[in-house]
């Protein structure tokens, strides 16, 4: 089989497979089996990507992104890992792992005089666990992490489904009351329902990078992004632009009143030691 061939040649299995192969049951079950082992051995890693505040030019927030390189199957990128983890339920374990790591890291930075908010990605399945609020509060307590240093990103798909699930909305409100912030990720790509803007306790949204890429040369997209930023301002929400790769994009976003930028132009996702050099002592948080 393809799988045996790639493994025999010592190549990266996951990268060598086509999209159809990824969707096949046998690939999924191999990934699932290896993921379970990796989770038990805490063999996942976290990279952090900084966001720069456009009013102060300081880094006040970093996003935590999961990384997994398995000794047998190689690197499994998040775009393959997360959907499989969501289907198998292992996303809850990935979520706890990321939460714990993020809180520990936030405390370490705060103790070093550079309090930085860490933003973690979540799936709705994690919030279907009735103990989610308790779990989060316990991890904050155990790690001594102040709640305002934690932010939770949800996707538009999450938001749309949450509208119909009162228990999820109430869990979000409980966490918000403790000082945890919620951010809407990949804004503009999903379901463009404004009802969840009205219903959910969201303090921020992140404009998806597919809108940021063409702003320099496409007037229509530029107008769209400017409109999104104004929309955010009138709702008193923080607006972050994702996938910012050039200086020209930064100036357009700055001009339009965007609050913060994240992307390769500033930094790729990196290990903590490699982004600390960008931090300046701050009292913002
Ligand atoms: P996301 O939350 O929208 O994260 C941003 C993604 O864009 C990251 O991909 C990041 O590496 C990439 N990126 C950042 N700046 C740039 C840029 O300037 N140009 C380009 N082309 N890409 C950029 P990554 O790390 O592969 O993650 C992909 C997605 O997987 C994330 O999208 C998020 O939805 C999901 N994800 C990652 N970690 C976790 C996790 O711990 N839990 C959950 N539930 N989802 C996660
Ligand atoms: Mg995100
Ligand atoms: Mg995003
Ligand atoms: Mg994304």
TrEMBL record:
It comes from the Bacteria. Residues 28-283 form the EAL domain. Signal peptide: none annotated. This is EAL domain-containing protein. It comes from Kurthia gibsonii. The chain holds residues 392 to 676 of 676 of the full protein.
